[in-house]
């Protein structure tokens, strides 16, 4: 009976992270899902709209009046705010505000898509400061101070998307030796975590299904912590394509062309006339320094227990997805043109 199903509101449901979450929530017909999006006609909204039990709800996630409409009739929420679109300050505001609205509307469970508190893990050394990590982590600290009744809360803390290996982390051909692919990253010998997004969606579903364990839990997920040297070796073993890891400096990284303009501000959908916004160079320097110095960690024993079917290694993921190092679209923001929309203040 559709009317007896719990209904979950998903914020950010059309994104790279949100799509597998929505699919996992909708699978098995236990829950109805409402996806809030600015554009019901986008390719990802259209892909989700045909799934039984999924409702597309048009509106802006960062607007109080829209949220008040979207929360009506909702039992649970999964919230992935978009720090790249709105910047750290607004991300903190909206994460907390969405929690408050969830309480006001009497929801049973609030699941927040978190990231690592890079600054705090790095003892507030400014070399680790990263707006899109710190912003979500400050919301996580706020949530961690909230009671677990009458509404449960959980945080699903992620890391770099494995799928990013086809976009922002994709290899490029060696200009001196075109048969060889170069995986370049400013990581030294560090092991860096990557998460397969299908599994990410299944962890979110586990949180919803298992409140007795997930209430009050900050779960740090990844598929594997891997050095780029090992990643390169796995790639060559699986594909037969020659590849090398190139350890690069941050300056070299910003010249790779991953970002059109490293001096543009992070916050492509908000006014740039805000001195708290980071430049891409500032933001991603903190980001890579955090991974290079291995400030974060995950409990893989716990992850194996929660999701025994999870993909357990980058090599397994490469085989499963027939990864060949080719570029493919991953982030909706990039499909929508955000990569070239950065504007200097
Ligand atoms: N890239 C990574 O490896 C990674 C890893 C972990 C966490 N994250 C975090 O995930 C968040 C981004 O989500 P994603 O990775 O799913 O990105 P994405 O694929 O680019 O999708 C962007 C999402 O943000 C939504 N959105 C709402 N208002 C927006 C606005 N004003 N401008 C742009 N988008 C807006 C979009 O919804 P509509 O367009 O449908 O309205 C869409 O669902 C960021 O906070 C980032 O820090 C990223």
From TrEMBL:
Pfam families: NmrA
Family annotation (InterPro entries): NAD(P)-bd_dom_sf, NmrA-like, NmrA-like_oxidored
Top-level division of the source organism's lineage: Eukaryota
Keywords: NADP
CDD domains per the UniProt record, alphabetical: NmrA_like_SDR_a
Keyword Phosphoprotein: no
CC annotations in GO: nucleus
Annotated NmrA-like domain residues: 5-256
Tagged with keyword NADP: yes
Family (UniProt): Belongs to the NmrA-type oxidoreductase family.
Protein name (Swiss-Prot/TrEMBL): NmrA-like domain-containing protein
């Amino acid at each position: 009976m559709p009317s007896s199903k719990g209904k979950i509101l998903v914020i950010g449901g059309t994104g790279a992270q949100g799509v597998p979450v929505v699919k996992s929530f909708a699978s098995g017909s236990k829950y109805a899902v409402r996806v809030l999006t600015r554009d019901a006609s986008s390719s990802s909204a259209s892909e989700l709209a045909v799934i039984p039990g999924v409702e597309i709800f048009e509106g802006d996630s960062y607007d109080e009046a829209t949220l008040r409409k979207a929360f009506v009739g909702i039992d649970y929420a999964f919230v992935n705010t978009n720090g790249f679109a709105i910047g750290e300050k607004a991300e903190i505001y909206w994460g907390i505000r969405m929690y408050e609205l969830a309480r006001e509307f009497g929801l049973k469970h609030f699941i927040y898509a978190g990231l690592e508190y890079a600054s705090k893990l790095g003892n507030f050394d400014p070399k680790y400061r990263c707006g899109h990590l710190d912003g979500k982590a400050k919301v996580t600290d706020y949530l961690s101070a909230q009671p677990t009744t009458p509404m449960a809360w959980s945080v699903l803390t992620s890391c770099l998307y494995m799928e990013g290996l086809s976009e922002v982390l994709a290899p490029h051909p060696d200009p001196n030796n075109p048969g060889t692919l170069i995986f370049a990253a400013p990581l030294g010998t560090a092991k860096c975590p990557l998460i397969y997004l299908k599994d990410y969606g299944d962890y979110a579903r586990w949180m919803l299904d298992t409140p007795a364990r997930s209430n009050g839990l900050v779960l740090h997920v990844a598929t594997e912590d891997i050095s780029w040297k090992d990643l390169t070796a796995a790639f060559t073993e699986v594909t037969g394509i020659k590849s090398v890891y190139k350890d690069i400096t941050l300056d070299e990284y910003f010249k790779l062309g991953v970002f059109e303009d490293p001096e543009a501000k992070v916050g492509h959908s908000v006014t740039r006339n805000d001195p708290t916004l980071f430049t891409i160079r500032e933001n991603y320097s903190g980001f890579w320094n955090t991974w290079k110095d291995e400030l974060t960690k995950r409990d893989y024993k716990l992850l194996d227990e929660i999701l025994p079917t999870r993909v357990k290694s980058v090599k397994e993921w490469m085989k499963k997805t027939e990864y060949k190092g080719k570029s493919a679209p991953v982030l909706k923001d990039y499909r929508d043109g955000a990569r070239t929309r950065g504007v200097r203040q």
